Each structure stands twice: as C-alpha cells, then as structure tokens.
Fold this sequence. Notes:
The structure holds two protein chains of two kinds.
Chain A: H1 3-23, H2 29-53, E1 62-70, E2 75-81, H3 86-102, H4 111-130, H5 134-143, H6 145-155, H7 160-193, H8 200-204, H9 210-227, H10 236-243, H11 246-271, H12 273-299, H13 304-323, H14 328-359, H15 370-373, H16 375-389, H17 395-416, H18 421-448, H19 467-485, H20 488-505, H21 507-511
Antiparallel strand pairs in A: 1-2
Helix pairs in contact in A: 1-2, 1-4, 2-3, 2-4, 3-4, 3-11, 3-14, 4-5, 4-6, 5-7, 6-7, 7-9, 7-10, 9-11, 9-12, 10-13, 11-12, 11-13, 11-14, 11-20, 12-13, 12-18, 13-14, 13-17, 13-18, 14-16, 14-17, 14-19, 14-20, 16-18, 16-19, 17-18, 17-19
Chain B: H1 2-9, H2 11-29, H3 37-57, E1 61-64, E2 68-70, H4 72-94, H5 99-117, H6 121-141, H7 146-177, H8 182-190, H9 194-211, H10 219-226, H11 229-251, H12 258-279, H13 285-302, H14 308-332, H15 338-342, H16 350-353, H17 355-369, H18 375-389, H19 393-419, H20 433-451, H21 453-459
Antiparallel strand pairs in B: 1-2
Amino acid sequence: xxxxxxxNLLLFLPVIGGALLLLLPExxxxxxxxxxxxxxxxxxxxxxxxxxxxxxxxxxLQFETRVPWIATWxxxxxxxxxxxxxxxxxLTAFLGPxxxxxxxxxxxxxxxxxxxxxxxxxxxxxxxxxxQDLFLFYVFWEAMLIPMFLIIGIWGGxxxxxxxxxxxxxxxxxSILMLAAVVYLAFTxxxxxxxxxxxxxxLHLLELAVPVQVLLLTGFAxxxxxxxxxxxxxxWLPDAHVEAPTAGSVILAGVLLKMGTYGFxxxxxxxxxxxxxxxxxLIMTLAVxxxxxxxxxxLVQDDIKKIIAYSSVSHLGYVMLGLVSYNLLGVQGAVxxxxxxxxxxxxxxxxxxxxxxxxxxxxxxxxxxxxxxxPVYSVFFMLLTLAAIGLPTTSGFTGEFLVLLGAFDAAWPLxxxxxxxxxxxxxxxxxxIVLGALYMLRLVRRLLxxxxxxxxxxxxxxxxxxxxxxxxxxxxxxxxxxxxxxPNDFLQKTEQAVIEYQERVLPARVEEGxx
Amino acid sequence: xxxxxxxxxxLPEHLLLLGILTLLVIDLVSSRARDPFLPALLTVLLAAAAxxxxxxxxxxxxxxxxxxxxxxxxxxxxxxxLVLTVPVLLLGREERLDSRFAMLLLASLYGAFLMLSADSxxxxxxxxxxxxxxxxxxxxxxxxxxxxxxxxxKYLVLGGVGTAILLMGISLTLGATGGxxxxxxxxxxxxxxxxxxGAVVLVVVAFMLKAAIVPFHTWAPDAYEAATIxxxxxxxxxxxxxxxxxxxxxxxxxxxxxxxxxVLVVLPLLSIVWGNLAAMRQPGFRRLIAYSSIAHAGYLFLVLLGAPEGRFExxTFYVIVYGLTNVLALAxxxxxxxxxxxxxxxxxxxxxxxxxxxxxxxxxxxxxxGIPPFPGFVAKFLxxxxxxxxxxxxVAVVGLIASYLGIYLYLRVIQYMFMTPSPAHPATRPTGGFxxxxxxxxxxxxxxxxxxxxxxxxxx
Lengths: 515, 460
C-alpha cells in the first residue's frame, strides 16, 4: 500500500463500513455496533500510523492524492495532510470509537440508521479536514449537516425537532453565503489564470482588490463564525447540544465546532489576508466577548448540558483569539486548544450522558453528593473538570496558556506604539480563565459534593461506571494528560504549517523580524 | 436523397409516431383493453437509442430548411427527454393507466421534439401546441374528483392565453424584422426599438407561462394536484425540460437585450422566492412539488442571462438532475388511495414502515434543496456560476439567498418521515413493484450524477 493510499483508505473506511452495515439485519444491533466499532477502531489505528509517519518541518502536503473529479471545471479530488489538519484528523479518528462505545446502551431505536449516520458524519468530517480543493471542501462541509440533522432529530430529546431545524437552518444560511463567495472565486480564477481551478493553493495566488476581499471574507466568515460559534451567532448551540443525544453532543462539541475555527485557519484568513487584517480588531473583540459572555452564561445555567455547551462558546473564543494573534505561539496554542477542547468537552458530554442514562435528568438542582454514591464517576468528572479549567499538566493548560502568551505577544508591540485596545482585550481574556474555574467548580460542587441525592431513577439501583464506560473515559483522560505533559511532538509537527499561515496573513510583520 | 435525409434526421420523431400508431391499432382491433406499457416502453427506448446514436455521431441535417433542422444539441436534448420518460412510463404501469395515457404521452413528446428542432417560429408554435393539447387531456384523464376537471379547465384557459401571447409575440417579430425564422427572433433580441422589445418580451412571457414562472404560475399547483402521479411527473420533468431547452435553442447565440434582462431578472427571482415560500404551506405532496417546480423554473430562467455558450450545458444538466429527482420522489410515494397518499401527514413515520422509500425520498428532497453530495447541488452551482460569470453578481447572490428559503420545506418532509411517529392505522401501503423499479432506476442515476457529475458534463 502506497502511503497516499493510506490516507484515502482512512477517509473511505467509514463508507466501506457503511456499505457493509447495509447488509446486516436490523434485528441484530449487536452486530451493527460491533462492525461500527471495528471500522472506527481500524480508522483510529490508521490515523495514528499516519501521524507517526508524518514528517515534521516539511513544507506542503504529505500523503497527497490529486485526481480530476469534474474535469471541465478544474475540480479535483485532492486530499492531503499538513500541519493544520493533522491533529484534527487524529482527534476525529480518536473520538469515533469512543462515541460508538458510549452509545452502546443509550441508543436502542433504529440502531442501524444511527451507526450509518455516525459513519457518514465521520466520513464528511474527515473529508472537510483533508480537502485541498475548495469545491470538495464545500461538498463535505455542507454534507456534514445531513447526518447531524438526523442524529439530533431522531434520537434527540423532547424539543429535538425545533433544535435540529434551528441547527440546520442556521448553519445552512452561513453556507449559502459561503457558496456565493466560492462561486465568485471560481470564475475569478478562470478570468485571472485562464484555466478553471479550485485548488486552495491556486486560490492563494489570486490578486483580489481589498473591497472584494472584504465581501468574500464576510461570506466565508459568517459561515465559519456560525459554526464556531462566536457570539452573537451562538444561539443555535445550546439548543442543539441540549436536545442532541450524547453521541451527537460529543461529535458536535468534539469535532463539528472545530470546523469553524479550522475554516478560518485554512481558508478564511489565508485566502483574504488584507481583509483579515482589517477584520482582526473585530474578530478579536468578538473572541473575547465570546470568552466572557459564554463563561458568564455557563455560570448561571441549571441544566448540566447547557453549562458545558456555553463553556464551549467560551473555550472556542480562545481558539479564535489565538488565530488572530498571527504568531507562532498563539496559532499553535489555538490548534492545541482545538484538540484539547474536543477531548475535554467530548468527555464531559459523555459523562453527562452516563449520569442521564442512570437518572434521566440533567437538572443540576436534582443532584448532589455523587462523590459518595459514584466514586469512580466522580474521580473522572473531577479530572475532566481540571482539564476544562486549564490546570497545568492537562491539555487545557497548554492550549490556553499558549493562546494568551501569543495574544500578549501580539498586543505588546501595539501597546508600545500607543494602541492600548489589543492589550486590554488580551487582559480581559485572562479573566475568562477565572470565570472558567468559577463555573466548573460550581458545577462540581453541586454535582459531586454536598448531601447525597439523585433524581428518582425508576427504582433501579444506582451503579457506578462499568468497565466499558471506564475504558472510554480512561482513554480520554490519558490523551488529555499526554498533551498536557508532552506537547512537544504535537507542536513540532504543526510548526511548519503555522509559520506558513503566519507568513501568508501577516507578511509585513515577519519581514520586520517580528515575534 | 431528400427522403433519406428526412428519415434519418427525424428518426426519433418517426419512431414516436410509429409507436403512437401501433398503440392506436392495437386499441382498435383488440376487443378488450390491452396494457400499453410494453409497446410504449419499446418505442421510447428505440427512439432514445436513435437520438443518442445520432447525437454521438454528430449528425447535422436540415430536411426542411428554415423550418426544421437538427444537430448534436437537438439530438442530445431529445435523448434526455426520452430517457426521463422511461421511469414515467413505469409509474403509469403502476397506476394501470390505459393506452390513452401512453398515446397522449408520446404525442406530447412529439410536440416537444418539434420545438427542439424548430427553425421557424411557426414550427415552434406548432410544437408548443402539440406538446400542450395532449397535456390538457392527460390532466383530466384522472377524472376522479370534480377538482380535476376544474384544474384542467384552468390549465386549458391559461394555456390558451399563453398561445395568444405567443402568437402576438410572433406577429410583432414579423413586424419588427420582416421574417418568421428563429434567426429573425434573435435579431429582435438585439434590437432596442419598441416593437422588437415587445416581440421578445411577449414570446418569453409565453414560455414563462408554460414553465410556470410567477406571476403566470397559478395553473401549476392545481394541475399538478389534479393529475395522477405519472402525469404530474411528466409535467414536472419532461414538459418543463422541453420548454426550457426549446427556449435555449430559440435564443441561440444571442444575448438578451436590456428590456428582456429586466424581465429575466425580476420574474425568476420572484418565482424562487414565492415558489419556496408558498411550498412551505402546502398540505399535499403534489402541490409542494408544484411550488418547488415554480422555484426551480426560476433558477432555469436565470440561466438565460448567462453567456450563450454555457446555456445549453447548464440547462441540460439541470433538467436531467431535476427531472430524475422529481421522478425519484414521486415514484417512492407510498401507494394508496390517490388523495390519501398525497397528504404530507401521510408520510409521518414512513421510515419505520418502508425504510427504503423513506431514504430515497429523503435523497430526492436533499437534492432538490441543493445540498451536496447530491446532484442538485452541482446543478445549482452551475446555474449560479453561469449567472455570476455573465456579470450579474448581485442577482446570483439574491438568488442563492432566495434558494435558502426552500431548504426548510424539504427538511419538513424528511422530518415527517424520520422524526415523527407513524399513525396507528396508516392509510398507505408500500410502493408497488413498477414504481419501486422506477425509483431505484432514478436513484441510481441520481447517485451517478452526484458522484460523477463530470461524466455527464463532459458528455454534454
């Protein structure tokens, strides 16, 4: 097997798995679960192998495949790994088996359709990360909505239909404007280069007037900002998270939200660098508002899922803050923070799902003293909380610390020139860490400590985590501490791509011998 | 030589005529009603093979100079219409429609073919009439409810108005240019005197009426609802395709003049907006398809703003995809009493009764909504790229945003099928064998068009 085909296999494994799934009978859910688990575990193994084989410090794509798809339009099936998508691909493959394992007991209706949709999602998410052709990217980006729409709408909670329609229509609106921008880029390439192309690398070479760039960036940015989500475009998120089944929430928080930040990193800022610089103060402001406002909202929720949903808004604010610092520390921090948030929020949603399966309530007021009732559960919850707060040795610390370092690094020279606003924003972002500790510790205090009580669980005895659940959480915790303790390997493999991103968006600062 | 040329150039037409006559003779000599399915299917397949072969061979001929000429584009368009007819015939067999259905269908197709080869406005007019007259009869064929007659009447009257408008446009063309050829019309397109403008606007409006563009759309929902499913499928796919392809041929290499541009911008955009909005409130599946077809006609008319070279490719690809998706949706509709199966609420919980049908309808809906990876997306992309390339950037953006309005109505169908519980006593049964075959054929074609749109685009 040539190396490039390994990446193709990684992408198409879920499709193969889905085709095999069709052959299985509906009345054998155990086989369906087993097959999905097998496929996704194989995918994870392959992703890990690709990660190890990925060479650090090399510019450009690795494991690249490029074949014509719609030849007359210059559209190619073009995928490859670079430092920007490497970690996100690994994260997606890592969460896949955990999601399926977590749904063993919670999904009992339409099991085949559910696993088909999870595999479909896995395919489209990996496709979005791997695509190096704008058309292909858009196809995967938009196709991703379909399985998520069904997952929330079929297996969700009481208001699932409202939530899923809101999710779909919200994100589709952003996509429509992005599509307008994509179409515009398509014929601009044709008129400037004489031959049609959608290769992202070719689009980098386009010469676009600044006003055009601003309009195009608006189209892309709206779509990405909805997905991130950035305040004030975040209102779909709590509904979608609360109503989604556990698996949906985990994928949503773990991977889907990163699509937005990845979009900015891969397309939004590098394609339209001049517009990006103009928009930087606005995006920075919105990022800090997201950090603080998300944290503030998380502080006053009584629904456990909503707390974690709003904490996602806050944590992804850091990612955006890191991306617009345009320096090595900040952007690398943002990438690490994306992965870290995927693990931490994914884990927390899984844990909420586990307690919901036992007690059928997400109301924080109904719980208390779980530390006495479910000691193992409480230990894992505590560990994930610490990572969410960003305690040193966890992945959360690595990510947020680097982001803040990067933000200050970018703001300080401006402060010396007499512009205090960026520095004020960076300082305000620090406050977010304090708020983060507040809302997470409030959650832990009310959930784990105090008088022991749980909502009526229908007479069933409350049992602690079983081996399956412990293995899922142990895998997550191990990954969180691995990134927290040994981030170096991750940082090295992303470094080259981040430097190129930085040179692309802020050539001036690099020439001045900046950071 | 002349006769030989005519034989080859109009081979698909001859085969259709042969089929119609065969059906007629069978009907006359046979004492009991015979199933017209096989002769009709054979006719369509033979004609499709003939048209496909002539298109592939690049046959060019003008057996009646100035009135009737053919070339690869005309043959391709005919082959497309014939291929789309195959699943419609299967649907007709499912409903056990008699030979009247098959004969009228083939006759209507004959009219479409005349339009697609017309070199003069007289021939075009003749083609439109031959296309439309059988349609009025086809709508009333399902005479099961009083509304059918009412709808057919409405269709007939408005169709008559369309005919009158077209004739008025033709006579103005004669007045403005002194000729009745298609080239004279193209000359009028470029002219900016009052009479030329009037001529082209009237002709285009007549086509808009046939394709159901707002505000000339009012007949469509009633006619679509009154007709049986196969006839609805025929109107939504083949008739719409024929009208648009004929219009592309009529425009040829000419650009629209300023007066026409205004019409071609405003009315299609209105159609997209109103079609999508009104479709949201429809309780019946066929009315929903009707309003969605009004919106899709809007996208198709926008293509006429584009550069002449790209129009044929864009429109053909769009009508292939749109036709297949519509047939797919209508074919998978669960069987049952005609008005019961049409109710959207009847689709509730369909996934648990007939998962295959539910998934296929969902694919059709997502394709109509223009969501990738389904081919409706590529078609939509192609349309808006054509429009933007011609410099109408704002029109394209408004059109895209208007197309967003449509997403909800298609999602609602999926929501009914997958997310709402089934009624205790569903009034419908799973689809029968012929309709299922049509559905599977259309689905496979949709899949190919979605995964390898390049093949179809390269072949056009």
